[in-house]
Amino acid sequence: MTSWKTGPINLKIGALAPPPARDAAADKAALAEIAAAVQARDFERGGRLAERALASGLEHPAVLNLAALKLEGEERFEDAVRLLQRAVAIAPGDPGAHNALGLCLRRLERDAEALIQFDQAIQIAPTFAGAHSARGGCLESLGRLKEAEAAFRRSIELQPENLGGLAGIANLMSRRGAHGEARAMAAKVLSAQPGYPDAVNVMAAAELAAGEAPAAQVRLEAMIADPRLTPQQLAFAQGLLGDALDAQDRVPEAFSAYAACNMGLWRTYAKTYGAPPTALEFAQGMIGRLDAIAPEAWTSAGEPPPGATGHVFLLGFPRSGTTLLEQVLASHPDVEALEERETLSAAMRAFLATPQDLDRLAAASEAELKPLRAAYWDRVRDESAHVGGKVFVDKHPLNSLKLPLIARLFPNAKILFARRDPRDVVLSCYRRRFVMSGSAYQLLTLSGAAGYYDAAMQIAERMAPALEARSHVVRHETLIEDFDGVVRAVCDFLGLPWTDDLRAFSARTRDRGIATPSGAQLAGGLSAEGVGQWRRYRQQMAPALPKLRPWVERFGYDPQ
C-alpha cells in the first residue's frame, strides 16, 4: 500500500513460525487470516486482526507491523514506534521491520534515528529499493543532499519505477533550479500515481519558474483539497500556493495562503516548540544576562585553527543573505565552506543550556574551554569539511545568538555579518518554509519573526564591543548592486586574493547543492527581485513594523 503518510509498506507474513509455548494451530490460523487480508489489500481489516492477535499475546513481526500501521492511521506514532521496536527486537534480521520503524520515526521527525534503521535494512537486504528511497528522504531532511541524491538514484537503479526515488530526485533538481529536468521526472511519478504530493510540488515550482503561475495555482488548489495530506504536506502546498498568487500580484490572497500554511504548522508543532521557554524567550533571557556582564569578559587567549589558514563565522539572520555570501566565498579555491551545521553543539550543552549559563561562560577557564574547541573541530571533520590549508567559513545565520560562545572559544576567528533590510528579512522568513525547529517556529508569525530578529540584533549589539575589531558587515543590497567591490572588500578582510571564480558562484551552486530555501534562487545568479518586497505587503506587515523600526533606522535603510 502507498499512502501520503507512510510511503511503501513491506509486510512479510509468515516469515517466522509462531512462538513456542502457545497454541501453534491457533496462531497459525490467525497469521493465515491476517495474511489473507494483506493479500487482498484490505489493510484496515488486517490491522484489526493484528491488534486482536497482539492482545492475545501473539508477537510476530508482521502482526506488530500491521498493528503499528493501524496506530499510525490514528496519529499515534509514539505507540507505533514502540510496537515496531519490539518487531525489530524479535526479528533483527527482518529488513521490513527496520524499514517500517524508520518510516514511523520519520513521521516523528526523528531523522537521525530513522537513518540508522534504513542503514540496517540495507545492510540486511542491499537490493531493498524502498529502504534506499526512504534513506534518501531522511538524508535530504538532514541537509545531506549529495548523499540523498546517491540514495535516490540507487533506489531507481534497483527499481526503475520506484516513486519515492523518482520524486526525490525531482525534488532535488527543483531545489537546484533545474526545473526542466525536475518537471520531466515528476511527470513520470504523476503518470503512475496522480496526486503524489512531492511530484505535484515539483511541477508547480517548475510552472512558477516558467511564468505559468495560474497553472501552478490550479494544480496546488486541487492538491490542497486531498484529505490524505499530512499537516506538513498541506502546509507546504499552501505556502507554494502563496508564491503562485504572489507571482500574479494578488497580494492579499497570497498573504492568506502564507498565513494558512504557517498557522497549520504553528498548531502542528505547538506542543514541541510552543511551550516555554520558547526560542524567543530564551534569546530575551540572554539579553538580560549580557547586560550584567562586562564586555571585557568576552576576551580569551584562544588557539589558531588546526590546519586552516583562517577561520570565519558567517552569520546574521535567516534570509539576510548568508547563503549568497557563502556560495560566493565557496567558489574561491582557497576557501572551504560549511553550510548550516550545528558545529557548536557541545559548547552549547556546556555553556548555553540556559541564559544563566552565560555567567559561567564569561568566567570559564582555558582548561574548561579547550575541550570544547576540540569538540568543535571534531564536528567540523565529521561533516567532511577539509580545512587544511584553507580559510574555513562556518556559515550559520543563527550563530548570531551564539556570539558569546564564539567570542570565548575562538578569539582569533573573524566574523562576517550579513545584513539586509529588516523588513525584507522578516517578510521573507514568514513566506519561506524551513525545516522545523525552535527557531523556525518563531518565524511562523510576523510578530514572532520580528521579535526574534530584534532579539538576535540586540545580542549582536551587546557583543559588538568585544568583536568589532574582527568583524565585517556585508550589506545584501550593496552586494547585489556592486558585486565586485563588495566581494573584493570581503576578500581583503579575510586575506584572500581576488579570483574571477567568485563571479561564477551560480554554476557551483547548481553542483554543490544547498539545503536552505535559497538554492533555486541562487542557481539563477544575482537578483534584485527580493529588494524592497516588503512594500507590497506593507498593510499586512503593519503589526510587525514598530518592532523593526529602530533597526531600520540604525542600519540606514529608508524608513518609507
Features:
about 60% helix, 5 strands
Notes on the protein architecture:
The protein has a five-stranded parallel β-sheet. The longest helix has 22 residues, at 446-467. By secondary structure, it is mainly alpha-helical. Helices cover 61% and strands 5% of the residues. The chain is globular and about 80 Å long. It is built from 30 helices and five strands. It has helices at 24-39, 43-55, 61-73, 77-90, 95-107, 111-124, 129-141, 145-158, 163-175, 179-192, 197-209, 213-224, 231-247, 251-268, 270-273, 279-291, 322-330, 345-351, 357-363, 366-382, 403-409, 422-431, 438-442, 446-467, 476-481, 483-494, 505-512, 519-523, 538-541, 545-554; strands at residues 310-315, 335-339, 391-395, 414-419, 471-475. The model is unreliable at 11-17 (pLDDT under 50). Helix 6 runs antiparallel to helix 7, helix 11 runs antiparallel to helix 12 and helix 11 (197-209) packs parallel to helix 13.
List the helices and strands and how they pair.
Elements: H1 24-39, H2 43-55, H3 61-73, H4 77-90, H5 95-107, H6 111-124, H7 129-141, H8 145-158, H9 163-175, H10 179-192, H11 197-209, H12 213-224, H13 231-247, H14 251-268, H15 270-273, H16 279-291, E1 310-315, H17 322-330, E2 335-339, H18 345-351, H19 357-363, H20 366-382, E3 391-395, H21 403-409, E4 414-419, H22 422-431, H23 438-442, H24 446-467, E5 471-475, H25 476-481, H26 483-494, H27 505-512, H28 519-523, H29 538-541, H30 545-554
Parallel strand pairs: 1-3, 1-4, 2-3, 4-5
Helix pairs in contact: 1-2, 2-3, 3-4, 4-5, 5-6, 5-7, 6-7, 7-8, 8-9, 9-10, 9-11, 10-11, 11-12, 11-13, 12-13, 13-14, 16-24, 17-27, 18-20, 22-24, 24-30
